[in-house]
User: Which sequence fits this backbone?
């Protein structure tokens, strides 16, 4: 059954031509085969989300931005703990956590959210994320399809990256992405300004963004443009 499921998904991915299997196509097919409101794939580097390889559906881009800004949520946990994280009722979560994330996600219209690690063997690259605008668990078929999609996504993404230089992101991966380069640039600047590590600088940037109720990318751009010094703003 698992093999049949995989073959069905691969056939749908290649329906528009094998050369069109891009990250964007991965998210479109994920949303279609699982029947959810929105789908996305987040990529990580050094246990830190770097942004979305792709999104599909009305909720996904906004919620991906929330998880990236806050550094928490089911999809972040799915990657970090290397297991599916399933929250069928975000308004009444089974395991209360994600204190900063839940309120804004509900305001955005998300009622259920499911994260699946994306990787091959010990090589984890990100998480596959499903968003639904009503509460409820995934069916057995939806869950099984999501697991297969996560596996296929890992193989496709690693294969696409293998076609480019080892130290540069393959152009096809950058095409449909929303990678927050400016945030990492700002974190590097803050690391030097505040004399802290990169991870701590990113935490400070997120904390300021949350307190100011502003997107982290907006705050990061001001830091990079030298219109905002975080130590002065915090003071």
Assistant:
């Amino acid at each position: 059954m698992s093999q049949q499921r995989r073959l069905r998904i691969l056939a749908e991915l290649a329906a528009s031509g094998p050369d069109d299997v891009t990250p964007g196509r991965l998210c479109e097919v994920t949303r279609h085969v699982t029947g959810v409101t929105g789908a996305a794939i987040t990529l990580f580097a050094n246990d830190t989300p770097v942004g979305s390889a792709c999104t599909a559906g009305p909720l996904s881009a906004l919620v991906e931005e929330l998880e990236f800004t806050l550094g928490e949520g089911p999809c972040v946990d799915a990657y970090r703990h290397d297991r599916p994280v399933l929250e069928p009722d975000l308004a009444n979560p089974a395991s209360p956590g994600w204190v900063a994330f839940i309120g804004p996600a509900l305001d955005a219209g998300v009622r259920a959210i499911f994260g699946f690690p994306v990787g091959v063997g010990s090589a984890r690259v990100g998480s596959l994320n499903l968003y639904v605008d009503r509460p409820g668990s995934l069916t057995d078929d939806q869950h099984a399809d999501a697991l297969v999609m996560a596996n296929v996504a890992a193989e496709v993404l690693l294969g696409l990256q293998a076609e480019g230089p080892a130290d540069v992101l393959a152009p096809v991966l950058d095409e449909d992405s929303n990678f927050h380069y400016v945030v990492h640039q700002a974190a590097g600047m803050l690391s030097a300004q505040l004399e802290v590590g990169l991870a701590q600088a990113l935490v400070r940037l997120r904390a300021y963004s949350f307190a100011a109720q502003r997107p982290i990318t907006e705050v990061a751009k001001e830091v990079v443009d030298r219109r905002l010094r975080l130590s002065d703003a915090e003071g």
